[in-house]
Amino acid sequence: MNERKLIRVADVMKNDAHIIDGMDTIRDAIHLMKENQVKTLIVDRRHDDDEYGILLVADIARSVLAKDRAPERINVYEIMSKPVISVPPQMDIRYCARMFNQFQLTRAPVAEDGKIIGMVSFTDMVLKGLYDLY
C-alpha cells in the first residue's frame, strides 16, 4: 500500500503576514506592498469582535488603476474584502487546495487562536508542498 506523505499548511506557508489599517490609503498600501515585495495585505481588526480583511494587488488594479482613481484619496476599507477566509496551520494542503478551489481563492491568511500567523497560496502549496511529494 502506498502511503502519502502528509504536508500541512504550516510546512509551506510564509511565516509573515503584512498588516495594514483599514483607514490607511491605497497609496500607503502600495508602498507597504512594494517595500515588502508582497501581493497581499491583511487588514487589521478594529476591535476584538471585528474580523480581518484582505487586500490584494488585483483589488487595487481593478478598483483604482482600471477606474483611474487617485490612490491617495481611497481608503483600504473601501476596496478590501471582509471577512477573510483563513486556514489553520495544521490543515492538509490537499484540503486547503480544495477549499481554495471551492471558494475561488488564490491565497489566504493562516490563523491560529484568532491571530494571523502567516500566509499560504496555491504557489506555496504546489512549489513547496506538491513538489516534495514527488
- Kindly report the name of the CATH homologous superfamily: CBS-domain
Tell me, briefly, the overall form: globular
Which topology does CATH recognise? Answer: CBS-domain
Secondary structural class: alpha+beta
How is the biggest beta sheet arranged?
3 strands, mixed
Specify the oligomeric state.
Answer: single chain
Helix-strand string: HEHEEHHHEEH
The count of DSSP E runs of length 2 or more, i.e. the number of strands, is 5
What is the CATH class? Alpha Beta
Helix content: 25-40%
Main-sheet strand order equals 1-2-3
Characteristic terms for this protein:
134 residues, CBS-domain, 6 helices, 17% strand
Brief digest:
Helices cover 38% and strands 17% of the residues. The chain has 134 residues and is of the alpha+beta class.
Write the layout of secondary structure elements.
Elements: H1 9-12, E1 19-20, H2 26-36, E2 40-43, E3 53-56, H3 57-65, H4 76-79, H5 93-103, E4 107-112, E5 115-121, H6 122-133
Could you walk me through the main structural features you see in this protein, from its secondary elements to its overall organization?
This protein has 134 residues and is of the alpha+beta class. It has 6 helices and 5 strands, in the order αβαββαααββα. The chain has helices spanning 9-12, 26-36, 57-65, 76-79, 93-103, 122-133, and strands at 19-20, 40-43, 53-56, 107-112, 115-121. The protein has a 3-stranded mixed beta sheet. A hairpin with a 2-residue loop joins strand 4 and strand 5 (115-121). The longest helix is centred in the C-terminal third of the chain and has 12 residues, at 122-133. The protein starts with 8 loop residues before the first helix and ends with a helix. 22% of the residues are buried.
